[in-house]
Amino acid sequence: MLQVSVTDEGPGFPPDFLPRAFDRFTRAEASRTSDGSGLGLAFVHAVATAHGGTAHADPTGPGATITLRLPV
Question: What is the third-level CATH fold of 2-70?
Fold first, then answer.
């Protein structure tokens, strides 16, 4: 299993966002003032699924960790 994790120090995700984190056009921030279309995590999930792997989002206090796991 290959595992890649990326952690940032941004605002993170509210707990109620986690079930939708990998949906297309979904953003954690309710306001539309920041950049982004809500597709980044959807792409991560699509790549993981296409290769028989998984993607997981974890709030880490300030920020979040996204983990991609792929079979080798």
Answer: Heat Shock Protein 90 (3.30.565)
